[in-house]
Amino acid sequence: MLKKRVEDALNGQIRVEADSSQIYLSMASWAEVKGLEGISQFLYKHSDEERMHMLKLVRYINERGGHAIVSELSAPKKDFGSFQNLFKELFEHEIHVSDCINELVHVTLEEKDYATHNFLQWYVAEQIEEEALARTILDKINLIGNDKGGLYLFDRDIRQISADSAAQDESI
Ligand code: FEO
User: Fold this and answer.
1) Which of 8, 14, 33, 89 is most enclosed, with most CB atoms within 10 A?
2) What confidence tier does 159 reach under pLDDT thresholds 50, 70, 90?
3) How many separate domains does the chain show?
4) Cβ(101)–Cβ(13) under 8 Å?
5) Chain segment 66-80, per-residue pLDDT in tens
């Protein structure tokens, strides 16, 4: 049975993951409208992954005798200025998500809830991957600068990144 404090903290994380899904969906739509086909595909996929992170929490809370709460969400931004800025925001958002996960892990230790602590290790590992991926993308963007040919190749190659991460998910 989940302690109330752990249940509340997990419910808080449901909202963080749902918010992430909304933000990446809005980014995907912006990129699609701008004709950045590969980037938008990457972001649609990323949005789906965040929903999966949220669902995993919902199922866990209910399985442990708690009640997963689906809350209202804030409307994400509609305009991201440039694709460089978009990926900078994505990276910063992932750092924020990692901080939230770390806080959550801290609560489970304080409450001596080792089952939830164990469950959250999947999220800890996922955040390492997501931060690394976002950092790799930012490095590539820095290399491109304002080169249009570079953007064309980046937009094409990022589809492959989506496909690679999809393959990894299927192997979980
Ligand atoms: Fe679910 Fe990108 O963190």
Assistant:
1) 14
2) confident
3) 1
4) yes
5) 999 999 999 999 999
Q: Is 156 in contact with 38 (CB distance < 8 Å)? A: yes
CA 4–ligand 1 middle distance (angstroms)? 24
Query: How far is it, in rounded angstroms, from Cα 149 to Cα 164?
Result: 23
C-alpha distances (whole Å) from 164 to each of 133, 158, 168 are 11, 10, 6
CB of 14 sitting under 6 A from ligand 1: no
Half-sphere exposure of 134 (CA within 13 A, CB side): 23
How far apart (Å, rounded) are the C-alpha atoms in residues 98 and 145?
28
The answer to whether the CB of 19 is under 6 A from ligand 1 is: no
Q: Is the CB of 17 under 6 A from ligand 1?
A: yes
Range of the domain at 140: 4-171
